[in-house]
Amino acid sequence: MTDFRFHHGGVSVPSLAEAIEWYDRVLGFKVEREFRIAAAKSRTAMLRKGPLRFEIFEVENADPLPADRSHPARDLATHGNKHIAFCVEDLDAFLLEMTERRADVAMVVREPFGTGCFIRDCAGNLIEFVEEDAT
Prior knowledge:
By secondary structure, the chain is α/β, with parallel strands linked by helices. It is built from three helices and eight strands; from the N terminus they run βαβββαβαβββ. Residues 5-132 form the VOC domain.
């Protein structure tokens, strides 16, 4: 089988400028490049934090995010892509930092199968952070 690796996740937002500011202030992503995608009628930015990339689209006349898509448990009841997830070493330290950065914490999960949380970006898109088990 052909080998492949992860390149980026992507979200659609109502305001590219607001999203660029949010992803920088809250998560530390910096703009790698900005461009237009004519076929999608979008202004687009590729953001980067170390090896991680996140693509943000502001599309002309886009429909708003359906309310259920910004609630983790309800979002699972709709087929399709759900979210992107990142690892953190210490969930409690991460949650404290997100509180300090005024992030919208949607859900904290502490279950036998794992520990993590979901936050909402400035447009309501879900992003998961998991504390990886050291074992």
